[in-house]
Amino acid sequence: MEFMGLVANKIDFFLLVLARVTGIFSTAPIFSSRGIPPQMKIGLSGLVALIIFPVVKPPVHPLPEDIWNFGLLVAGELMLGLIIGFAAQMIFAGIQLAGTAIDMQMGFAIVNVMDPMHGTPIPLIGNFKYILALLLFLTTNGHHLVLSALYHSYQLVPLTAFGFTGSLVGYMMKMAAGVFLLAVKISLPVVGALFVVDIALGLIARTVPQMNVFIVGLPLKIAVGLVVIMLSLPLYLFMMEILFNKTYSDLINLLRTI
């Protein structure tokens, strides 16, 4: 009862904490899934805010009593949470982009499946790698790293201290550029093998004009692509584990930049 009375007496302070938590849970991996009902997301955000509320330092300056100025502070905390969750989601965007590149080379570009996390169509191989990365993310307690980044965000960026700066925008652009580099690294084994197959098919088409390369080439590229995906799967899982740990350090560096 004393704890709830403390929350009631400092409801404005609690709303600022809740806004940042809600922002993270709206865009972070796993927590932002469409499979989670909105009521559960709201309840989880409120529960985490209640847990973390006692250890958050109050703002140095008194909070404004004007509803508009206070609303701007809440919007700023919400925006900070959205940025943190979006930064944690970058790695999965790179995985989907890599899957798109692989599907285009294998001939699966017209075969799309529904992404259960966001409700959007994504390529077949991209969905396979995406779900595999999500399972590994949960297995390696990657969602705990997101919660840890949330806790450290209140230490590195106190309440009401968020503001857009040139360094923040530059760091976010650097992370966005890293998405394309990550997609190249993930798709390179399969795309490279299929490129060699294309060269071989081109040489066969020049030396044996009677052969219908299109009919032979499509199943051959699918078979080679699937074999290379299976052979490179251990490397992919090892790479994902390293990238998940790097994501946490990137989130901390982002907070320090802010």
Note down, in words, how this protein is organized.
By secondary structure, this protein is mostly helical. The chain has one domain (2-257). The protein is 76% helix and 2% strand. It is built from nine helices and two strands, in the order ααααββααααα. It has helices at 2-9, 11-27, 38-52, 67-106, 124-139, 142-156, 166-207, 213-231, 233-257, and strands at 112-114, 121-123. The protein has a two-stranded antiparallel ribbon with strand order 1-2. Helix 1 packs across helix 2 (11-27) and helix 4 (67-106) crosses helix 5. The longest helix is centred in the last third of the chain and has 42 residues, at 166-207. The protein is elongated, with a radius of gyration of 23 Å. It starts with a helix and ends with a helix. The model has no long low-confidence stretch (mean pLDDT 78).
SSE layout and pairings?
Layout: H1 2-9, H2 11-27, H3 38-52, H4 67-106, E1 112-114, E2 121-123, H5 124-139, H6 142-156, H7 166-207, H8 213-231, H9 233-257
Antiparallel strand pairs: 1-2
Helix pairs in contact: 1-2, 2-3, 2-4, 4-5, 4-7, 4-9, 5-9, 6-9, 7-8, 7-9
